[in-house]
Amino acid sequence: MVRAKKKLLWSGLLLLALCIAGYAGLASAGEDGSPGSVNDPLVTKSFVVKYVQESLAQLGQVKGGGSLEWSTSALEPGQQFIGKSGTEFIVRSGEAVVVDPSGSGIVDLTAGKNVSAGMTAEKNHLFTIPREDGRGVTAVKQTIIMYRGY
Fold first, then answer.
1. In the chain, pLDDT over 90 holds for what percent of residues?
2. Cβ-Cβ contacts under 8 Å for 136 (sequence gap 6 or more)
3. pTM (predicted TM-score)
């Protein structure tokens, strides 16, 4: 009878050891990067939205201090709008002609072509300035432009 109790005690201890080992294995399983673990925590939608907005704000800071936000400007006849590299603009009203001392033109993304110096910048077309070398537009009449990345 003593021998049966010893065998039962050892069997119980072995079962307890296996349970502890199994629990420890399950507890450490989440540390390998599975969702919800310390290495891959679950996040809320508001956290993701805030993170994306902050990242976009940082990306929006382009050379020259411009941003991804659109601004507007009113140009009087003869007044120029000269952009920096990557500046985008749209002539909303009035009339403006392209200024291009380099002779390479500016890109009319809407029409998919280059526009050279002296040519009219079409209204409601998206233009981009490829280099910071004096390219832009001169207002012929009072002109309203939208721009970003200036």
1. 47
2. 80, 81, 82, 83, 87, 89, 98, 99, 106, 129
3. 0.57
